[in-house]
Predict the structure.
Amino acid sequence: MKIFVYENREILGKEAAKFIASAIRKNPKLVLGLITGETPLECYRELVRMCERDEVDFSQVKTFALDEYLELPSSHPYSCKSQLLETLLRYLNIPHKNMHFLDASSPNPASACQAYEEEIKRVGGIDLQLLGIGLNGHLGLNEPGSPFDSRTRIVELTETTKTYLARYFGERVPKKGMTMGLGTIMEAREILLMAHGQAKADIVAKALKGPVTTKVPASILQRHPACTVMLDKAAASRLP
Ligand code: F6R
């Protein structure tokens, strides 16, 4: 695991964007796993700027969203699909058919999860998976206790996650979600985990330097052969 610490979240975001752009230049058909939330916003803004300046070409890139909330229409402004379209995808030269989302509106979400796994396999697996970390150590919506070999599935959100998500959803916070499993995530050829801010310092230290345990889902990343971690100083402040 390679850990890089930057002065602030803006620099972190720019470096993360450079990392992704360089992966696309090496492999123009990159299969890229995307996250939502606060963590990637600066990185996504920089990727959009780079794409506008023709510094990176997304025309052959395929993307897969890491997770989605259930019980929400996909047009909801805070569905993962809407967030990804609005913060990144609609500004890139990426064909719509290359964008993949978990379908929360499916009449059979369990089989939609299975179909997602099959689609990931069909395109040859994820080359680069972006990740953020939840305050409880979750990856995607794999909450504490999620098995390390879990696959894409429906999950219940914990109180910690629901309290965090209230900033977006107010009183109508989703109780369930769909997420790639920890097993699915660990099969990505390369991983880029990002975290910023003091609030993440404790969980970052536990995940990166503590025991590998399902109580801290992100600790599994210690076993990934090609995981890069980008932190700002605040998020790195509790690392030994
Ligand atoms: C979102 C996702 C989540 C977030 C995590 C951190 O697609 O996978 O695991 O990465 O909850 O959220 P923020 O970035 O809002 O702190």
Notes: The chain has a mean pLDDT of 97.
